[in-house]
Write a structure and sequence with these properties.
Rossmann fold, binds adenosine-5'-triphosphate, ATP hydrolysis activity, four-stranded antiparallel beta sheet
Length: 234
């Protein structure tokens, strides 16, 4: 479904991503793990058309989307659930969800999709008239996921969904992401929580200093001595 070939990304003189190649097959849940600053977020931003200075190729469903603007990428079926959630704090829950559907040509289906999001996250229905900025961190994460689902994506990019959440909410969030994949949406997820990410994915890539240094199934990576030593506390 998605292939990244030799992707390099620069910010002025810094090369944040250096020749990354990876692929995600339809129906897979693939994670990108690595330390702070390894280039994980930059890789996702490049996929969403948010990095201008890049080399390499990004192919989605057989078409080259390298350098395409963000709205084209969303329209092709790639949604981005960003780091830090980035909900619109002064808008209500309902308005935030509507923003997720802003590229639809018509209003058809928006209400039924919103109802589906409310079924999955009943707390959002209870709070639908409340400003998003007043929600708890976990609720804001649910809203960010719901907003991404509103564009009816084929592929969702999750950036560090566990960041800043209490451990029980992290488990809940990972459970929801696994369920989204089981229901047919392909997932590429960036996580610093290597243990959680490797436990739930089909395959994973480890990034270090902007390069892919290891790839394998979640269980292979959990057993890898370097991963254990450097990312799982031995
Ligand atoms: P984190 O978990 O901290 O987000 P990451 O693996 O996602 O880490 P990136 O955010 O992609 O890493 O950053 C990779 C490198 O690019 C880092 O050295 C970072 O300082 C640099 N970088 C990221 N964004 C910018 C920017 N807007 N301008 C300049 N340098 C940047």
């Amino acid at each position: 479904m998605l292939a990244i070939e030799g992707l390099s990304c620069r910010y002025n003189k810094i090369t944040a991503v250096k020749g990354v190649s990876l692929e995600v097959k339809e129906g897979e849940l693939v994670t990108l793990i690595g330390a702070n600053g390894a280039g994980k977020t930059t890789t996702l931003r490049a996929l969403s058309g948010l990095v201008r200075d890049l080399d390499g190729r990004i192919v989605f469903e057989g078409e080259d989307i390298t350098g395409a603007p963000p709205r084209d990428i969303i329209a092709r079926g790639i949604a981005h659930c960003p780091e830090g959630r980035r909900v619109f704090p002064y808008m209500t829950v309902e308005e935030n969800l509507e923003m997720g559907a802003y590229l639809r040509q018509t209003g058809n289906g928006i209400n039924s999709d919103m109802e589906r999001v409310y079924e999955q996250f009943p707390v959002l229905k209870e709070r639908r008239k409340q400003a998003a900025g007043t929600l708890s961190g976990g609720e804001q994460q649910m809203l960010a996921i719901g907003r991404a689902l509103m564009s009816r994506p084929k592929l969702i990019l999750f950036d560090e969904p566990s960041l800043g959440l209490a451990p029980n909410i992290v488990q809940k969030t990972f459970g929801i992401i696994s369920e989204i994949c089981r229901q047919g949406t392909t997932v590429l997820m960036v996580e610093q929580n290597a243990y959680g990410a490797l436990g739930m994915c089909h395959r994973s890539y480890l990034l270090e200093s902007g390069e892919v240094v290891l790839t394998g199934t979640g269980s292979d990576m959990l057993d890898n001595p370097h991963v254990r030593e450097a990312y799982l506390g031995g």
